[in-house]
Amino acid sequence: MNRSRKAPALLSLAVAMSAWAMAPVFIRYMRGSYDPYSQAFIRYLFAAMILSAVCLVLYRQDFLRLLRRPGMILGLVCVNIVHQLSWTVGCYHVSATLAQLITELGVVFVIIFSFFLFHEERRVIRSPVYLSGTALSFVGAAAVLTGGGHATGATVPWAAGLLMITALCWGIYVVWAKHIVMDCHPVPMFAVLSVYITLGLAIVALLFGSPVCIFEAGSRITLIAFISGMLPLAAAHPSFHFAQKYLGSAFSSSCNLFAPLLTFVFASIFLDDAPLTLMQWAGAAVLITGTLMVVRTGQRSPESHS
């Protein structure tokens, strides 16, 4: 990869990781003011508004072209609607840190899809160190999922199932989006994606939620909803797509396994979530150890950065 692209790509990846680490904290913080369907809608509405305004100034031609002919991203819209709904509902019933840890299993799906679709990922994925690191990550995530027992950090089974669906959708989304951004700038791509996702979530909110809560939430919660749409959605997604375009999807998603540590810090400050058990912390340590192995392998492989 061109060195002039490497530094901005790594910076973009850091922005995405930090913003996504805050996502479950925002969702849980606002759960008393919004039902999950209305919250998913309002967050994406703000993201779509922000990105549309940016694109009309900086990427007007690409934005309007994709908006008029969205055929290439309509399937991705459906995947993202399922992803956002399962993620939001799951976060309502599981602590922020636990939710973040469970969904990191999405890296496994990214690796599987990348192996078949992206030639530049194959050398990394076939590395014994990479495979060992991925296996450790999976084992660690399993320990986090099952280690709560009957303590306050126990996982609600159906909520954990929803978060597993989130992980699967994430893997599909990452690989599919990389295919699109190879020929399209990530900002207008995700802006148009956000517009259509917002329309879909509006229908879901009207059918299953109580959208009146959006108007009853008050200015403080509305401001927080705006920030949660701006950072984890409007800023993080285009940043991640830019990063994975030059660093590879498997490597970029593996680096996101650091996000739960940041989520834990943010949750400790802003939420009263139940603490993880010793078994869950041990699983998290195994998961992060596996991630470090994955990241080290990705950094050593020039093909993964081409």
Please give a quick description of this structure.
The protein is mainly α and 306 residues long. It has helices at 3-29, 36-58, 60-68, 74-93, 96-103, 106-117, 122-125, 128-146, 157-181, 186-208, 212-216, 219-247, 249-255, 259-270, 278-300.
Describe, in plain words, how this protein is organized in 3D.
The structure is a single chain. This protein has about 300 residues and is mainly α. The protein has 15 helices and no strands. Helix 2 (about 35-60) crosses helix 3, helix 4 packs antiparallel against helix 9 (about 155-180) and helix 10 (about 185-210) crosses helix 12. The chain is globular and about 45 Å long. The model is unreliable at about 150-155 and about 300-305 (pLDDT under 50).
Care to count the β-strands? Answer: 0
- For the CA atoms, what is the radius of gyration? 19 Å
- Could you tell me the mean pLDDT? 85
Helical amount? over 70%
Q: What is the percentage of strand-forming residues?
A: under 5%
Structural class: mainly alpha
N to C succession of SSEs:
HHHHHHHHHHHHHHH
> pLDDT under 50 segments (min length 5)?
150-154, 302-306
The number of distinct helices, counting runs of at least 4 residues, comes to 15
> What characteristic shape results from the CA principal axes?
globular
Distance between the termini: 4 Å
Biggest sheet layout: none
